[in-house]
Amino acid sequence: MSKDYYGILGVEQDATAEQIKKAYRRQAMKVHPDVAQGDDAADKFKELNEAYEVLSDPNKRAVFDRGGDPMSNQGAGFSGFGGGFAGGFDFSNLVDAMFGAQGTRGPRSRVRQGQDALIRVRLQLHEAVFGVTKSIKVDTAVVCPKCQGRGGEPGSEPVTCVTCDGAGEVSQIQRSFIGDIRTSQPCPTCRGYGTTIPRPCGECSGEGRVRSVRNISVRIPAGVSTGIRIHLESQGEVGPGGGPAGDLYVEVQVAEHETFRRDGDNLEMVVKLPMTAAALGTTVDVTTLEAEWENSDVADRKVAVEVPAGTQSGTRIVIKNRGVPRLRGGGRGELGITFLVQTPTKLDDRQRELLREFADVRKERLDEVEAHSGGKGGVLGWLREAFK
């Protein structure tokens, strides 16, 4: 064996293809005639390329490892700055090895994976809280119903490209001081597919897919909130050539409610109380969010709430397990009810007289008021806590 290709590249005999490529890249940066000094730079570069050509090809490497001559059919070799490598040196190998580029290798498939799709669905609060099944319209690419993704008219099959002979790429050879340089690019006739379609499908123009609006049923779990995305596998865009569909993501947006406000897993509401009811105490029936959910138990659509005598504006009571179902962990949050005591604004003479009598009995003077310190945080802090 006249040459030690492993030694030229500086790798062990069990080196992997990636290690060989990295070694060639390092050596090429050093011995390339444009950067190396000395009269033997061209010879060293020629040896390096020959070593890489052999060791990067599994068949030639196997012949070399068995003691054979892997270059026996490759001609006389390098002939100097004005000559070229026998059989032509593939410049793309040099680019791949030195810069990690991945050039075109063979025809590419017409069938490719489709993209994911995203749509948004707007829910009412009770739908988000208790869950719902929605029928939604999705405008995506689907498999062409006429050609079934093949791209050609019925009875028309793809034929081998006459320009690239099915390779999917065309090459050009240019002579340079380092030899014959071969560059490759996708075939302009078949666009790299290696085949052409003589009679493209009139429905999809050879794409294998068309736009279509379809209805799909989406099960939305209880407890979702704005921004939650539901993942539906293989319900997105069908790929070119009728390729596998991507996934569909349904993003939830929850509308505001005129009565209930959501706070995490809790629901909050305000109940107005007449001044007399707040002073004397009473029991009120409060309509819950279940009243808007047709699948709820009738008994759950109202809840009896005890109002203690002397209830003040801002008083909040809690009803357990009447809030939002938790997406994780189970159970429900609470329903918070804040009372707002209403002062009458329109009084007749009799009502006005009764209120004056009530004030006299309580020895209250209508022209005297007492400032509220507000306690910790001052008056503003007290108001924030009262109406939180």
- Looking at CATH, the homologous superfamily of the largest domain is Urease metallochaperone UreE, N-terminal domain
Regions with little confidence, pLDDT below 50 for 5+ residues: 74-93, 97-104
Largest sheet: 4 strands, mixed
In the CATH hierarchy, the third-tier topology of the largest domain is known as HSP40/DNAj peptide-binding domain
Order of helices and strands: HHHHEHEHEEEEEEEEEEHEEEEHH
Structural class estimated from helices and strands? alpha+beta
Helical fraction equals 10-25%
% residues in beta strands? 25-35%
Total number of helical segments? 9
Shape: elongated
Reading off the top of the CATH hierarchy, the class of the largest domain is best stated as Mainly Beta
What order do the strands of the largest sheet run in, or round the barrel if closed? Answer: 11-12-16-15
By DSSP, the count of extended strands is 16
Distance between the termini: 89 Å
In the CATH classification, which architecture of the largest domain applies? Sandwich
Number of domains: 4
**Radius of gyration, in angstroms, nearest whole number:** 40 Å
Describe, in plain words, how this protein is organized in 3D.
This is Chaperone protein DnaJ. Its cofactor is Zn(2+). InterPro entries: DnaJ, DnaJ_C, DnaJ_domain, DnaJ_domain_CS, HSP40/DnaJ_pept-bd, HSP_DnaJ_Cys-rich_dom, HSP_DnaJ_Cys-rich_dom_sf, J_dom_sf. One of its GO terms (cellular component) is cytoplasm. The protein is α+β, with helices and mostly antiparallel strands. It has nine helices and 16 strands. It folds into four domains: 5-99, Helix Hairpins; 117-153 and 204-254, Urease metallochaperone UreE, N-terminal domain (HSP40/DNAj peptide-binding domain), CATH 2.60.260.20; 159-196, no CATH class; 261-386, HSP40/DNAj peptide-binding domain (Sandwich), CATH 2.60.260.20. The protein has a four-stranded mixed beta sheet. Helix 2 (17-31) packs antiparallel against helix 3 (41-55) and helix 2 crosses helix 5. The longest helix has 15 residues, at 17-31.
